[in-house]
Write a structure and sequence with these properties.
single chain; 338 residues; mainly alpha; two-stranded antiparallel sheet; 16 helices; 2 strands; 76% helix; globular
Length: 338
Amino acid sequence: MAQVAAQQLKDKANNQHSLKEITSPIQENLTTFRTFFKDELRSDVFVLDQIIQYLLRQKGKEIRPTLVFMTARMFGNVDKRSFVAATMIELLHTATLIHDDVVDESDLRRDFLSINKLWKNKAGVLLGDFLLSKGLLVALDYKEYELLHVLSDAVRKMSEGELRQLKTSKLFNMTEERYYQIISEKTASLISACCECGAIAATDDKEIISSMKEIGMNIGIAFQIKDDLFDYGIDDVGKPTRNDIQERKVTLPLIKALEKAPALEQLKIRRLMKKRKKKSANVNEIVNFVHKYDGLKAAEETMQDYASKALTSLNKLPVKEGLEDFEDLIRFIINRKK
């Protein structure tokens, strides 16, 4: 079944719909969500309101709210619980992005100057804290304790994943198993929570909720592998190219290439990766190494496998409507250009 799903992914890749087309059935929900989200962010602190207004201009793809609404639509209706879930998730996700920019000393976010670049690190940290607290308060205001539990657990896992990656990168002992553990925690846990919360908002069926949690985890792992592929590709993805390499992050394309390379070449590349300041020639050598030993191809096949698992599990569920739209969203995630 997984092989059939994998073939379907490849067959439909060339006929992929745009994100706007895929989300057309829930565009009204997304419009309502934006108003709901904006209202929850209001503040009477002038500087905070200024930063929030700037933040609201940086509209991303809204993948996470989309997952909530599409999941809810498949098993029931999109209602206030769905909007509460999507708002909580977007608040928590945005907070983690802002904190990440502070930690990474990033100057750009979605082609805008980052919050920490414009208002300094302290404002970035405090804004992230404000968003996290708002996410918790939204849950309490609407008495959504089950959603709060799911998302609090996701935030815990995300923090553990970031710390685990930090420790691993310092020790330079990344393995494939550890890589999956880290991306499951730091990225896939929140995407899993999107699908789980969308299901919770629409149905009381514990099997469906559990299945959507697992499906979201597989989507999230595929999502992160796709992000990691960008660093070794040639496409403009709206962020500094080769960022992972410069930051000494060992990701799946490199892990897969190292598995196939002779011992001496492995040692040389590991030494290059450990360098804090790499020249462009060093970076190009690492990229060429990954291409030479088919690291991208192997990582892409793994990504397809995880997406196939999600599709296979999805097709076993009693979906009310919107199955094809959700399948198209999975294909979009793994075939996106940035």
